[in-house]
Amino acid sequence: MDYEGEFLNDPNDNVSGNIKPTRELITRSIFKVYKRRWFVLLVLCLLNSSNAALWLTFAPVADQSAQYLHATLDQVNWLSLVYMVVAIPLSFGTTWMIDSLGLRITLILGSWLNMLGALLRLFGTFESLGLSDPYPLVMSGQTLCAIAQPLVIFAPTKMAALWFSENQRATANMIASMSNPVGLLFANILSPLIVTTNDRIPLLMLVYAIPACLVCFLATVGLRSSGPPTPPSASAESSTSEPFIQGLKLLLRNRPYLVLLVCFGCGIAVFTCFSSLLEQILCVRGYSNFFAGLCGSLFIVFGVVGAGVLGLFVDKTKMFTEVTKVNMALSALACIAFAVVSQMRQQEVAVAAACSLFGLFGFAIYPIAMELCVECTYPVGEATSTGLIFISGQVQSVVLMVALQALTRPLADSPFSTCSIGGDPALSWRVSVLVMAGVFAALSCLFIIIFNSPYRRILAEAKAAQSGRPSFKADCIDTISQAVCQGTLEPSIGTKENEELDPGKDQPTL
């Protein structure tokens, strides 16, 4: 057999003679987890990392890229910004594709687009082609990679819901989600390390194209189905129980979700701008590209560590809301600290510490907030609810990045600048980073004060287990469970006032 076993069987349960198994055991024993889920997770992680590295390829070496591609610094910034612009109109179709056509088709399509984009970027830098202006071909390849991004980045919550048990979902989502910043980490390290001179840009394109080809092969050959033969949990059995359009209507009527949509979308925007503009912000104050890459690496490494710890913690405690609020507050403080110390010269330790803390608290929010998103919108499809969050983040990223660049001012005299942008004057980012920190702090405060929601998926699974029925879908006939499934559950259910109605009262809820 391919499965690992009946993960919810209690070893202390004795079923013999006239002793009948409990209704909970009858219900839960049909849910199995399969070893192949780890391969699905591996493919998604590799694809996520590759796509992220392709996105941030040029940001750590923006000046050298501008010179090699015969482009301006703004054009090089658009090689990153195109990811956000392309994702906005395509994301609605992507969410429908993941929830309707399935995970397998979506990931295979994303891996092919990712590979073709990487190869097109590589061909665009070949001098043997005799291109007088390589920028358009490189931008075309970058655009294909950008089209692949929503196909990849929306998948972690869906993959975790379909393949992993309820006590592994947050961890699986964390691993898949954090593979994206790992790709950013590779970009921050490899790009400055490889591009010591402008003529090494083609080598950089080749280094990033190899993993893209490898993961495309693994996805095409290895992914055999969108989900396992039998569901790993009660909620997975009825995943995507709401039609796409109906799910969108439910989301737009869900007030806690709208708060998460705006506030967490702002967090995504700030992290996107930080990753894309870090080198340009620091070089004008005399910091080298190597140091900027180091700060970007610390930002990601500490973020992955924080996400790993909190992922395991939340899987045990289910404290999604509390963890998200605390980390939003600490991330805002770290962002403010970076905005201040990044404008000071010769403060390497302070800048590196601010970047590390920003990553430690900020990156940890992403997988937890995505799980919180699914909990407060269940049974709307996971890709639909998290996809809209991502769209909100991309829209805000475009607006914020354009605004931050517009707020820069040319410096008449910049003797300490290490920015190699030809004859163009260096730019002051002082106002821009302060505005970025202020916006993030304001939206974090709004989220902490306003957000409040029950955990609908946890409650639904608890009621399904209590009912003793083999199918969660059948349980939706019950009055309270039907309220859960249709998204009309009152926030009071699951609180102390209604504890007798909540079979999952050991789980912390709001």
What does the secondary structure layout of this molecule look like, with pairings?
Elements: E1 3-5, H1 23-28, E2 33-34, H2 37-55, H3 62-68, H4 73-100, H5 103-124, H6 135-153, H7 155-163, H8 169-194, H9 201-222, H10 234-237, H11 244-252, H12 255-283, H13 289-317, H14 320-341, H15 348-362, H16 365-377, H17 382-406, E3 409-410, E4 427-428, H18 430-450, H19 456-467, H20 472-475, H21 479-485
Antiparallel strand pairs: 1-2, 3-4
Helix pairs in contact: 2-5, 2-6, 2-7, 2-8, 2-9, 3-4, 4-6, 4-17, 5-6, 5-9, 7-8, 8-13, 8-16, 12-13, 12-16, 12-17, 12-18, 13-15, 13-16, 14-15, 14-16, 14-18, 16-17, 17-18, 19-21
Features:
510 residues, mainly alpha, two-stranded antiparallel ribbon, two-stranded antiparallel sheet, disordered N terminus, disordered C terminus
**How much helical structure, as a percent, in the residues?**
55-70%
Assess the beta-strand content as a share of residues.
Answer: under 5%
Radius of gyration computed on alpha carbons: 24 Å
Q: In angstroms, what separates the terminal alpha carbons?
A: 41 Å
Structural class of the helix and strand makeup? mainly alpha
Assembly type of the chains comes to single chain
- In what order do the strands lie side by side in the largest sheet? 1-2
Run of helices and strands: EHEHHHHHHHHHHHHHHHHEEHHHH
Low-confidence stretches: 1-29, 469-510
